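Reviewer 2 asked us to include a model.

Predict the structure of this chain.
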Amino acid sequence: MNFAKPHLDLGLFSTRRDEQLDFWQRVVGLPYDHMGKLGGGMQQHRHRMNGSILKMNHSRSPLPDLPPSGIVGLEIAREGLAEAKALADPDGNKVRLVPKGQDGVAGIAILLKVNDPAEHDRFWIDAMQFERAGEGRYRCGDSLIVVSERGRVERAEASQWRGPGYRYMTVQVWDCIAEYAGILARGGSSGGEPRVLGETVRYAFVCDPDGNHIEISQRASLTGGTL
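Predicted model (C-alpha cells):
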C-alpha cells in the first residue's frame, strides 16, 4: 500500500460528549485539533496523539445496540513516563499510557481480541500489506496493531460501524479507489464502497476477519489536489 501518513487513526462513538472531551483532553492530555460535522446529528472531535488522530465521534441520538467490536484497547506512547498507566474513558474503553518505546510502541498501539490469529495474520500481512513486528504484531509507520487476546468476537453486519466504543481505525493513502480495490483483490472484504465527503476526503471501508472496520482515507489536506 502507498501510505500518505505513517500513523493509524482510531475512531470511537459515544453519546457522552462533555465527559469524553474532558477525559481525552484533561486526563489523557491529548491536544484538541478540530471538530468536523459528519451529518445525522454526528460530530467528530479530533485529538492529536503522536501523529495519529483519536476521533471521538459524538452522537446526539442513541447509538445502535451492537455487540462490542474486536478493538479492546489503545496504548499511547508518552515521553518521560516512568511506568505504564492504565485508564478507562467514561464509557469504559480501555487506554494505557506507556513509556515511549516500551514493547515497541513509538506512537500508538491498537489492541485486538480475535477469533482466529492465523486469519488475522494473513489479513494484516497479505491484504493490508503491513509489516510484521513480531508474533501477532503488525506495523504501519510508527503505529502497531497488536493481537492481545483470543476470544469470541461477534461479527456485525458490514454496514454497521457506528456503535458504542472503539469501532474503526483509519489508514491514510494517496489513492483511495486503487487501495480499496487492491485490498479486496488480496482477500479483504468490503465494509463500504468509496464515497466523497465534500471537498475534504474520499473514503471507503474494508473489514478485518472479525468485522472490525478499517477506513481507507484519501484526505485532501494530506494528498493535495482534488478528490
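The chain has four helices and 15 strands. The CA atoms of residues 26 and 103 lie 26 Å apart. We have added this to the supplementary material.
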